[in-house]
Amino acid sequence: MITVQEAKTILSEIPINRRTKTLPIAKSIGMFCAENIASPISVPSFDNSAMDGYSLAFEDLKSEMEISGEIKAGDSSMNKLKTGTAVRIFTGAPIPEGADTIVKQEIVTLQKGKFVVDPSQVKLGEFVRKAGTQCQIGQEVLRIGTELSSGTVALLASLGIQEVKVYDIPKVGVILTGDEVVSSDHELQPGQIYDANGPMLRTVLSQLGIDVEFVEKVKDEAEAVENSIKILLEKVDILILSGGISVGDYDFVRPALQNLGVRELFYKVAQKPGKPLYAGTLGTKTIFALPGNPSSSLSCFRIYVSPFIRKFFGADHAFETQFKFPLAESFQNDSSLTFFFKCVLKAGEIHLLSGQESFNLIAFNQATGLVEIPASNQKEQVFNYYPF
């Protein structure tokens, strides 16, 4: 067996043959930028007001001033300010020529068409948004590998950019094994169980933006397993197998992969649940064989497969843990295995749930994520947390 960190390192070092595509910015959220983007314009492109108020030249400021005009947002005429006067102005409106300061309307009173203000409350240049304050023309605003968010869409739209080049999502295939497993539209017979892994894998892949194109249920027969793997490997970038990876008489997945020339990266990780986890490659294809127990399968997907898929998207640091929190109650792991426990994150603390058995899905219904508790964890104060 290898350690959890060794497994993560191996997966993080697999070279990825990424493809790119161009999408409308509104459809790019969750994808990763595949190019550096420079601003085609300066933003703002003109000096404008950050407040509703009055624009004026600071050197002409007096306690009482004539109002000589009005400019609202969208006005294209850049009128010249009449010396010694103020102009009524609204947020986003262009600053008239000769003005350099905005007096916010909250400190102004109007008397017979003039405004009255205490000059001591006004500062030179206040509430003027200068051209290019956000970015200058030609300035880099988005770096390759950046995950695109709604904020990114707003930024690109403000620059007049309608499309963005992103890394394409991989094609993923799923093979389900286990003659005892049947779909929910069948009536259970003695010795049978309903399929949890198929719907679960479809769902977690969908959350990553992947519509699984190839899902196949295969009988627990050596030839059938091998043929199914061979066919799907010709169609997908990533192949996920559920079950059949242990050492039982009807576990045919690993021998089939060996027969097909798949290079084994690792088999078995010192962890619980999910010890019989397999990863391998065949050319540019990557293969994961997950344990059949639903809890083990979902845990392994979250810790290993999901980050790898995000790496395929362009997330080069996907295997780096982003969140660490303390346990609400101390737990001593005296085992040689790393534990991944279903848990709830509440008020900045991790609460372990009951029902941690690999077959038990009740706790997954309550869990907000997984917590990683390493072997011999005497020194740890905070622990890696993996949100769902």
Describe the structure.
With 388 residues, the chain is an alpha+beta fold. The chain has four domains: 4-18 and 169-313, 3-Layer(aba) Sandwich (Molybdenum Cofactor Biosythetic Enzyme, Chain A); 20-43 and 134-167, Alpha-Beta Complex (Molybdopterin biosynthesis moea protein, domain 2), CATH 3.90.105; 48-129, Molybdopterin biosynthesis moeA protein, domain 3; 323-387, Beta-clip (Beta Barrel), CATH 2.40.340. Helix content is 19%, strand content 28%. It has seven helices and 26 strands. The chain has helices at residues 4-12, 150-158, 197-207, 222-233, 253-259, 294-313, 362-366; strands spanning 20-24, 37-38, 48-49, 53-56, 64-71, 85-89, 101-104, 109-111, 114-116, 128-129, 140-142, 163-167, 172-176, 181-182, 193-194, 214-217, 238-242, 263-267, 271-272, 278-282, 285-290, 323-325, 338-346, 349-352, 369-373, 383-387. The strands form seven sheets. A six-stranded mixed sheet has the order 7-4-6-5-9-8, with no helix packed on it. Strand 8 (109-111) and strand 9 form a beta hairpin. Helix 3 (197-207) runs parallel beside helix 6 and helix 4 (222-233) crosses helix 5 (253-259). The two termini are 26 Å apart.
Topology of this protein?
Elements: H1 4-12, E1 20-24, E2 37-38, E3 48-49, E4 53-56, E5 64-71, E6 85-89, E7 101-104, E8 109-111, E9 114-116, E10 128-129, E11 140-142, H2 150-158, E12 163-167, E13 172-176, E14 181-182, E15 193-194, H3 197-207, E16 214-217, H4 222-233, E17 238-242, H5 253-259, E18 263-267, E19 271-272, E20 278-282, E21 285-290, H6 294-313, E22 323-325, E23 338-346, E24 349-352, H7 362-366, E25 369-373, E26 383-387
Parallel strand pairs: 5-6, 13-16, 13-17, 14-15, 17-21, 19-23
Antiparallel strand pairs: 1-12, 2-11, 3-10, 4-6, 4-7, 5-9, 8-9, 18-20, 20-21, 22-26, 23-24, 23-25, 25-26
Helix pairs in contact: 3-6, 4-5
